């Protein structure tokens, strides 16, 4: 798989040793994050909007109401930046100054394009559902023509992008290693802990979507 190219925008100026241009790492972060943050400027006012994001091949997709500020701005072709961060752990040092975090973050620059072909719109929404709940598309009512008309699907190429990763222990200051205090990593991960039925769904079997969540699926069967 072709590595990501380093550009003026993606080159890390601080913490360059944590830079990663592995495309598979980029894909893995966006696949796991589910929520992305889209940064753009309208009338000299910057905005950063969190929204659901999902990947199909080398493109990242988002969707929203036709009337939203973000959708209108991105449809106009404005330059934007999309990011996602996975917090893997808090790094506890022997000194207050050297506490840190272990994380994986991805950033992509470019412009979104509107997905207008009906087949691609439906396939992208199908991919979104499969990403979070495999098999659910076949179980639920498909989107109506009116619902599709009120929604815009946007896609951005994952080309001008970079990844930044931190792992490992704290970088202790010289002499601090011997201080009599615990140090290490407080590990953190996102997980599915419970499936809570709506009142009108209590009679139905609880679905199992562990194929999408892997080891992060920790729902205990009743």
From TrEMBL:
It holds the Pfam family Pyridox_ox_2. It comes from the Bacteria. InterPro entries: Pyridox_Oxase-rel (IPR024747), Split_barrel_FMN-bd (IPR012349). PANTHER family: 5-NITROIMIDAZOLE ANTIBIOTICS RESISTANCE PROTEIN, NIMA-FAMILY-RELATED PROTEIN-RELATED (PTHR34071), FLAVIN-NUCLEOTIDE-BINDING PROTEIN (PTHR34071:SF2). This is Nitroimidazol reductase NimA-like FMN-containing flavoprotein (Pyridoxamine 5'-phosphate oxidase superfamily).
